[in-house]
What does this fold into?
Amino acid sequence: MIGMCRVEVLVVVVSMVFALRVTGAVRIEKISYQGWPNCYRVSNGEVELVVTGDVGPRILRYAFVGERNFFKEYPEMMGKSGEKQWMIRGGHRLWRAPEDPKLTYALDNDPVKIDVRGSVLIATQPVEALTGIEKQIEVRLAARGTAVEVVHRMRNTLRRPQEFAAWALTVMAPGGVAVTGFPPRGRHPEVLLPTNPLVMWAYTDFSDPRWTFTKKYLILRQDPQAREPQKAGLFHPDTWGAYVLGTDLFLKRSKADPSQRYPDFGCSFETFTNQDMLELETLGPLTQVRAGGTVEHIERWSLHRNVRIGAWNDEQLDRVFVPLLGAH
It folds into this structure.
């Protein structure tokens, strides 16, 4: 009888360990990555993120465990810090909007403070001497699956208010296709008023073959052979952007408030591409941030496998995105 109890206890313990391995509790460990010694890997066994403590705040990697990085990396910029000019580096970053050639490009080339609180990682930048802003990125990975909540915070440490918006930019690896959606469509004359802005930059050229428009979707291809950059923006209360890389897909989402004022003629989403990469960008509202005040902007990420788009039309894109967007 005693022997049987011991066997049962052993079976229970083994089952618990096996269950942990399968379901994947979140683990955070300090690692060296791409020449930077103070990086942190956040993983649940299915997906992994790498956040560096050597510069930033930056999320350098988001991928299925052991597989290719969805984010662009610049090997020539890895493992270095302390530069006197802003470095793109790749990955995911937090900026100040609207874009200013001086204030937006405040340096983020110094070490950041990393706090690990259970399964949550928080990277906090030293206060920017140029702007008086303290930037922070918080990473919350689900215990199973691929879902990540990324919280962006910008604190105004000056003794006077400043007006700005949080701007979350994800630099995607080359060779993929970006997709975003317009707000729900309608018919004339039932819907007479405009539903959203579609914003251009001085260098935007919608005759460029990298752009594709359907009734419901805006598509931009990253092409390493194309020399001219492209950018466009729009507003959507349920802001989202996706990047299809082979048969894998990255999706990021955020909420936008139509009652608030947004940068760049009212954009909650922007996408940019050049020869090297493509960016998916979400923006928070323009806010008059009081002295000592903080703005917060939240994105929700996920990765998806076996995504096959036969044609870039509404029917095919609905087949892929309606279930994905309805599931979040």
